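Narrative of accomplishments. A recurring question from our advisory board has been how the design workflow behaves on a single, concrete structure rather than in aggregate. To address it, we present the structure tokens for one chain from the evaluation set, followed by the sequence designed for it. No filtering or post-editing was applied between the two.
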């Protein structure tokens, strides 16, 4: 069977899916038409039902439960992995002033936006942009602050930016749960047996990568652009873990906690 599959070019996703999409494991006759896009674009495409299988932000999941099922493997969830709220030191900005500040956010439907909104419910001056543009927007003074994700967690200090709040730590302190960042969904039009096969293939693909780590697949390096190998490994070490192999009970409980904030009444995480 042939599927359309979308995920981001970030090292955690290319690390997970490399073996699956490049024929390094037995795909049981399944093939994949792959598109690599930033997660906000993938969120929007999922809302349109464009892809069979896709990486999405858990912040977008409430809007997708009517047409997609959540898979167990391939996601990003854990402790100490949340987005950071950053600013320039010379801004003299503090968390109690965020409600009046302009803040760059990596997409309206992202988990980062949801976590920021939980911490700062009265913040109204948000500017939504691609995550990779946020550091520069803050540095140039286009925004007072920004919420950063992915590899920017490892580079903001080198650029003279400072952390105002760890939004993941705020979530962990508030709920006691790991932080659900992004997961893999598959259209409900595929039956449970097919979904289970794809889930298992994603798990095997990640296990293949784990078994060879710290070797970085060419696929990861190719799509990481100007990122050096140390940052690639930091990225993988932070975002890829046992929850990426299988959400398990703790992972699903964390997702349910997040969805209580943003899901329509009566929805539930379906697999």
């Amino acid at each position: 069977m042939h599927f359309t599959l979308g995920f981001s070019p970030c090292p955690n996703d290319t690390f997970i899916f490399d073996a699956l999409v490049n024929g390094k494991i037995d795909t049981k006759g399944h093939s994949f038409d792959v598109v690599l896009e930033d997660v906000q674009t993938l969120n929007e495409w999922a809302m349109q039902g464009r892809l069979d299988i896709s990486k999405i932000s858990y912040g977008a999941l409430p809007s997708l439960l009517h047409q997609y099922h959540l898979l167990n493997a391939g996601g990003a969830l854990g402790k100490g992995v949340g987005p950071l709220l950053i600013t320039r030191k010379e801004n003299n900005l503090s968390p109690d002033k965020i409600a009046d500040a302009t803040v760059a956010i990596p997409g309206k439907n992202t988990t980062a936006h949801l976590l920021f909104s939980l911490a700062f419910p009265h913040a109204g001056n948000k500017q939504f942009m691609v995550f990779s543009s946020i550091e520069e927007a803050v540095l140039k003074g286009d925004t007072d602050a920004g919420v950063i994700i992915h590899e920017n967690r490892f580079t903001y200090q080198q650029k003279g930016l400072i952390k105002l709040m760890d939004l993941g730590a705020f979530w962990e302190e508030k709920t006691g749960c790991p932080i659900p960042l992004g997961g893999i969904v598959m259209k409900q039009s595929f039956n449970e047996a097919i979904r289970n096969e794809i889930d298992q293939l994603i798990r095997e693909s990640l296990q293949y990568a784990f078994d060879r780590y710290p070797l970085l697949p060419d696929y990861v390096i190719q799509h990481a652009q100007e990122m050096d190998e140390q940052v690639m490994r930091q990225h993988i070490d932070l975002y890829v873990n046992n929850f990426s192999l299988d959400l398990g009970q703790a992972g699903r409980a964390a997702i349910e906690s997040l969805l209580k904030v943003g899901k329509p009444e009566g929805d539930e995480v379906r697999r």
